[in-house]
């Protein structure tokens, strides 16, 4: 499949799913016009239907004031969508039908949406929801297909990931009231961080540093809250400390012109001198910093013919001379910022947990009996919660063009129609406690609100946490290497319906297997594109090596990480020297692309952006995994071909959600690399590691096997 045609739909006209998960099949049979017109049931009245009279046709019709839909025949709850199926060929037969050829199956020509009846969280079905979004397989972009919604996932792919059966998780079930309180407190915590940086150091918080602090803390955190840390050792975050220190005395940005370099050099010298004068520095430190700062200012006054390179060279010299002394006087203050933010977070977690326990107690939700778990291997299944969900409040839903808007107590979250339908499909596959979709809207609201809070409120802030690989790359990974599982994703940006994500309490209802560091597969082929937190990536490598060493079954991990070599990150160094490394390749900067982290809400033309950094692709496999999914030159070439930038017009390089760059699936930025310019990409599209395989990797490759596992509890 070409990259231009990867975002299409495989329409299944023989099966249409209803809101409750039932399926309707066959041609509809309309009521006979000779029978008396029945009265309108109360359910239809509540759904917005009313009986009207057509003066032009001189006969009655039914009109929905919510969706502006008009029907000649009395509507049936859950019937077909007039946009995707205007002739009603796939609708369910109505009760009391007569001969199919006698009834009037025509409709008034008005664009509308179908409505569905449910509980307090019932929702109007979007007009795209009756397409089969499970797969994306159209090969021709004719006029009809061009009008279909664009899809970026394939939910038909079955998993080959095998795990040991595990008990339900002890997380508290999500509730909109608690999610609203968590959002408010997290916003206050961000404000505290901003104020502390400005008051104590006179700087703005480093971009995305709070988001990376959340990622780094959750690697260590043993507290009860899924988002905010409360039980970490050490208390001082290395990530936050490093990023704040890098911006002291001023933030160093990329320089394009000579005048900018001159101003930046002057500001740095002035800020370093001011800081050393106002802090409790040693006489030697004060002397060194003041002498270098004054010497730099005198040089700037004398020399007006220096080039940009001269200014940058002088700035680097000044940083080397003054940096250690400035860092020494700022160390205690920055540690105080990290400690203060952590203790405020722990207090907020205590409040949220106490309020959540009170809410569950008021709803008569008690601890269930321990689940009976057998010691057996099963295909991986979504994480389950031990506690039953309390009654959910009403969440309102309406549509604004192609945007689904969900509102709870005045707080609105938005998601594209197609992604709303994706969440509906994932919910149908994964949720086992809500067959009537009565809690669907409240759980969608909690899910989207959680990720919005984690992202932050800044422009393009946090989008790097959700960046994703292009669809052709996923297709190549699945076809060539049997990949069926994403180690770092979310219900919003996942390509497969089986994945690991950050929040098991909200994401488990939509297919998540929980956080990857708590997920221990025995076999399978996996794609890993972690958030760009150095501490998280290092913990990921440790987890990979433990799994590969422990398992004798086929196990393969294909990892996509940024090519950060100045300085070299510990995670990249460990993977390149790992005993399980079977192959490595690099894709240069600006020669490949990623999907936006805000793909669930952004415009279609903003979906893709070029990567401003190189990407390293590393294959970690045990012996059995290498024998089954060997990265042969032919397979690698197929993967590289899928990775090339397609011909569609791309915008400017993607938002920099961390140290300078954004990147692959469910990934976020980096800390201290904002001042490092992207490296020049080599001429070829990718460089291959052609070193011979190790002795234990000499097995011949087997063709990729497609595994169709049974139900989630079936034994292997």
UniProtKB/TrEMBL annotation:
<dbReference type="InterPro" id="IPR036020">
    <property type="entry name" value="WW_dom_sf"/>
</dbReference>
<dbReference type="GO" id="GO:0005634">
    <property type="term" value="C:nucleus"/>
</dbReference>
<dbReference type="InterPro" id="IPR039881">
    <property type="entry name" value="PCIF1-like"/>
</dbReference>
<dbReference type="GO" id="GO:0032259">
    <property type="term" value="P:methylation"/>
</dbReference>
<protein>
    <recommendedName>
        <fullName>mRNA (2'-O-methyladenosine-N(6)-)-methyltransferase</fullName>
        <ecNumber>2.1.1.62</ecNumber>
    </recommendedName>
</protein>
<feature type="region of interest" description="Disordered">
    <location>
        <begin position="649"/>
        <end position="716"/>
    </location>
</feature>
<dbReference type="InterPro" id="IPR029048">
    <property type="entry name" value="HSP70_C_sf"/>
</dbReference>
<dbReference type="GO" id="GO:0099122">
    <property type="term" value="F:RNA polymerase II C-terminal domain binding"/>
</dbReference>
<keyword id="KW-0489">Methyltransferase</keyword>
<dbReference type="InterPro" id="IPR022035">
    <property type="entry name" value="PCIF1_WW"/>
</dbReference>
<dbReference type="Pfam" id="PF00397">
    <property type="entry name" value="WW"/>
</dbReference>
<keyword id="KW-0539">Nucleus</keyword>
<feature type="compositionally biased region" description="Polar residues">
    <location>
        <begin position="1"/>
        <end position="35"/>
    </location>
</feature>
<feature type="region of interest" description="Disordered">
    <location>
        <begin position="1"/>
        <end position="37"/>
    </location>
</feature>
<feature type="domain" description="WW">
    <location>
        <begin position="43"/>
        <end position="77"/>
    </location>
</feature>
<comment type="similarity">
    <text>Belongs to the CAPAM family.</text>
</comment>
<feature type="compositionally biased region" description="Polar residues">
    <location>
        <begin position="687"/>
        <end position="716"/>
    </location>
</feature>
<dbReference type="Pfam" id="PF12237">
    <property type="entry name" value="PCIF1_WW"/>
</dbReference>
<dbReference type="GO" id="GO:0016422">
    <property type="term" value="F:mRNA (2'-O-methyladenosine-N6-)-methyltransferase activity"/>
</dbReference>
<feature type="compositionally biased region" description="Low complexity">
    <location>
        <begin position="649"/>
        <end position="667"/>
    </location>
</feature>
<feature type="region of interest" description="Disordered">
    <location>
        <begin position="88"/>
        <end position="124"/>
    </location>
</feature>
<keyword id="KW-0808">Transferase</keyword>
<dbReference type="InterPro" id="IPR001202">
    <property type="entry name" value="WW_dom"/>
</dbReference>
């Amino acid at each position: 499949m070409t990259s231009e045609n990867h975002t299409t739909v495989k329409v299944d006209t023989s099966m249409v799913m209803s809101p409750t998960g039932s399926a309707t099949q066959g041609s509809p049979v309309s009521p006979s016009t000779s029978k008396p017109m029945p009265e309108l049931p109360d359910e239809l009245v509540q759904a917005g239907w009313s009986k009207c009279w057509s003066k032009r046709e001189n006969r009655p019709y039914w009109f929905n004031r919510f969706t502006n839909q008009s029907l000649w025949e009395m509507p049936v709850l859950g019937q077909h969508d007039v946009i995707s199926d205007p002739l009603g060929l796939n609708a369910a037969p109505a009760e009391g039908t007569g001969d199919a050829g006698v009834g009037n199956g025509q409709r008034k020509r008005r664009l509308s949406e179908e409505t569905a009846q449910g509980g307090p969280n019932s929702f109007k079905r979007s007009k795209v929801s009756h397409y089969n979004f499970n797969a994306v397989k159209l090969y021709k972009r004719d006029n009809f297909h061009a009008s279909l919604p664009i899809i970026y996932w394939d939910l038909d792919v079955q998993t080959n990931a095998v795990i040991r059966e595990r008990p339900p998780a002890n997380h508290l079930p999500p509730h909109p009231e608690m999610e609203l309180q968590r959002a408010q407190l997290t916003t206050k915590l961000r404000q505290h961080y901003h104020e502390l940086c400005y008051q104590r150091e006179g700087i703005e918080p480093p971009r995305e540093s709070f988001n990376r602090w959340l990622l780094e803390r959750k690697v260590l955190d043993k507290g009860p809250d899924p988002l905010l840390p409360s039980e970490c050792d050490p208390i001082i975050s290395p990530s936050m400390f490093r990023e704040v220190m890098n911006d002291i005395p001023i933030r160093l940005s990329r320089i394009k012109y000579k005048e900018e370099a001159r101003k930046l050099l002057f500001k740095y010298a002035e800020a370093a001198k001011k800081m050393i004068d106002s802090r409790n520095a040693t006489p030697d430190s004060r002397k060194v910093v003041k002498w270098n700062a004054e010497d730099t200012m005198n040089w700037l006054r004398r020399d007006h013919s220096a080039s940009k390179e001269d200014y940058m060279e002088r700035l680097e010299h000044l940083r080397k001379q003054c940096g250690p002394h400035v860092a020494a006087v700022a160390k205690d203050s920055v540690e105080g910022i990290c400690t203060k933010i952590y203790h405020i977070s722990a207090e907020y977690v205590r409040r949220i947990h106490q309020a959540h326990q009170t809410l569950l107690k008021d709803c008569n939700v008690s601890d269930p009996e321990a689940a009976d778990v057998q010691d057996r291997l099963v295909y991986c299944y979504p994480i389950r919660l031990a506690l039953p969900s309390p009654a959910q409040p009403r969440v309102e839903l309406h549509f604004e063009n192609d945007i689904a808007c969900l509102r709870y107590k005045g707080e609105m979250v938005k998601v594209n129609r197609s992604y709303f339908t994706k969440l509906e499909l994932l919910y149908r596959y994964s949720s086992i406690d809500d067959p009537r979709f009565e809690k669907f809207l409240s759980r969608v609201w909690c899910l989207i609100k959680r990720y919005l809070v984690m992202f932050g409120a800044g422009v393009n802030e946090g989008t790097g946490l959700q960046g994703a690989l292009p669809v052709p790359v996923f297709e190549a990974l699945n076809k060539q290497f049997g990949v069926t599982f994403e180690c770092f994703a979310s219900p919003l940006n996942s390509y497969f319906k089986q994945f690991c994500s950050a929040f098991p309490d909200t994401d488990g209802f939509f297919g998540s297997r929980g956080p990857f560091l708590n997920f221990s597969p025995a076999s399978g082929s996996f794609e890993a594109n972690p958030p760009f937190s150095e501490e998280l990536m290092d913990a990921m490598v440790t987890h990979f090596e433990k799994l590969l060493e422990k398992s004798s079954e086929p196990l393969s991990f294909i990892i996509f990480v940024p090519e950060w070599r100045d300085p070299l990150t510990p995670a990249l160094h460990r993977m390149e020297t790992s005993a399980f490394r079977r192959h490595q390749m690099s894709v240069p900067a600006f020669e490949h692309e990623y999907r936006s982290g805000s793909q669930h809400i952004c415009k279609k033309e903003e979906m893709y952006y070029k990567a401003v950094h190189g990407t390293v692709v590393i294959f970690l496999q045990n012996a059995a995994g290498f024998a089954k999914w060997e990265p042969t030159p032919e397979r690698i070439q197929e993967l590289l071909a899928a990775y090339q930038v397609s011909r569609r017009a791309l915008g400017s390089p993607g938002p920099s959600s961390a140290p300078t760059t954004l990147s692959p699936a469910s990934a976020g930025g980096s800390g201290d690399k904002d001042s490092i310019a992207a490296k020049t990409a080599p001429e070829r599209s990718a460089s291959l590691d052609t070193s011979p395989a190790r002795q234990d990797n000499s097995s011949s490759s087997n063709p990729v096997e497609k595994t169709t596992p049974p139900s989630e509890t079936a034994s292997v």
